[in-house]
């Protein structure tokens, strides 16, 4: 099953390289949530997610023909996401990691009223803040492993480490 998914992704990317908009749309639909989540977890800034995702998928469109097949398409795509997020961060004077911009309504539904739920909300917020304080590479590794379900081997390839 895994090989058939990899083969399908490779086929879609090859068709994208040949200019197939429908193949590209299928790739975007398949990976857009993962890309959006990775961007948000990396930057911590919800306002940048859509713009960065659009720029990333434009890079995928333009560079589809450069895929060498030495890794899975998803690994190649995550590498593009990581590089683009790093470039974005380096272009800014400082990385905007403020999670204070998120209102409690965005983090927690209004229906949560019990003290246990309040404690859980505080714990989630503390964890998010702690993750935001991690150095970029550690935050990226944690995000890829815990939130995106990447294997350690895939994370090593994405981060270009052994």
TrEMBL record:
Residues 125-162 form the RNA polymerase sigma factor 70 region 4 type domain. InterPro entries: RNA_pol_sigma-70-like, RNA_pol_sigma-70_dom, RNA_pol_sigma70_r2, RNA_pol_sigma70_r4_t2, RNA_pol_sigma_r2, RNA_pol_sigma_r3/r4-like, WH-like_DNA-bd_sf. SUPFAM superfamilies: Sigma2 domain of RNA polymerase sigma factors, Sigma3 and sigma4 domains of RNA polymerase sigma factors. The keyword Transmembrane does not apply. Residues 27-94 form the RNA polymerase sigma-70 region domain. GO terms for biological process: DNA-templated transcription initiation. Keywords: DNA-binding, Sigma factor, Transcription, Transcription regulation. Gene3D superfamilies: 1.10.1740.10, Winged helix-like DNA-binding domain superfamily/Winged helix DNA-binding domain. GO terms for molecular function: DNA binding; sigma factor activity. Belongs to the sigma-70 factor family. ECF subfamily. PANTHER family: RNA POLYMERASE ECF-TYPE SIGMA FACTO, RNA POLYMERASE SIGMA FACTOR HI_1459-RELATED. This is HTH luxR-type domain-containing protein. It comes from candidate division WOR-3 bacterium RBG_13_43_14.
